[in-house]
Specification:
Structural class: mainly alpha
Radius of gyration: 20 Å
Number of strands: 0
Strand content: under 5%
Number of helices: 9
């Protein structure tokens, strides 16, 4: 990669990171190219040259986010580690997710035909097979009830993940996270009784 391309890529990343920072707390309609330009200290013309418009910029953010999450999850799920450790890593995964953004950003994405198409394709081609592989490993190791619907288990993991990464976390409130995280995993795996189903 030559110096010019490297600088271009770095500038694009800075613009996207600036937009992400704004979209965490503001609805998309309140985030303008002018705001991003001022905060990233680049010209509006540069942003338009790289992304064409605000929708183009937001689309690139969604693509990056999906790729990052998929790659991160794939590494965890396809590792040779035991199922409880995989769950722990999925819960504590720091990859950026839609839940990290302002709620209106999710609505914005779901109303955009291109982003809906990308998310649907990724689910059909890659994430569904990854989830199936993950659940199957849990069943084989004796941690997952084969009658449990896979989407329900994934939603439970996501609930734990969202809470733990939230500033208003209920699970970690009043606890030292270094001491409590294994208890959280155990509760997810075995329930409050701590006993595995025979």
């Amino acid at each position: 990669m030559d110096g010019f391309q490297k600088r271009t890529d770095q500038k694009k990343e800075m613009i996207k990171n600036t937009a992400i920072e704004l979209l965490r707390t503001l609805p998309p309609k309140k985030v303008s190219i002018r705001d991003i330009s001022a905060k990233a200290d680049v010209s509006m013309v540069t942003i338009y040259n790289y992304f064409q418009n605000k929708d183009g910029l937001f689309l690139e953010i969604v693509k990056d986010m999906v790729d990052e999450q998929l790659n991160s999850s794939r590494k965890i799920i396809e590792s040779g580690e035991q199922f409880p450790l995989k769950i722990k890593k999925l819960i504590y995964n720091k990859s950026l997710l839609l839940s990290d953004f302002h709620p209106d950003f999710i609505t914005y994405i779901m109303q955009n035909e291109e982003t809906k198409r990308i998310l649907s394709e990724v689910h059909e081609k890659e994430s569904s097979s990854l989830i199936e592989k993950f659940i199957q490993s849990g069943i084989e190791e004796g941690y997952v009830n084969p009658e449990l619907p896979a989407p329900l288990l994934m939603n439970m993991i996501e609930l734990f993940r969202r809470d733990i990464h939230s500033q208003e976390s209920i699970l970690s409130s009043g606890f030292n996270m270094n001491e409590i995280h294994m208890h959280i995993i155990e509760m997810l795996l075995y329930g409050v009784s701590g006993k595995r189903k025979e």
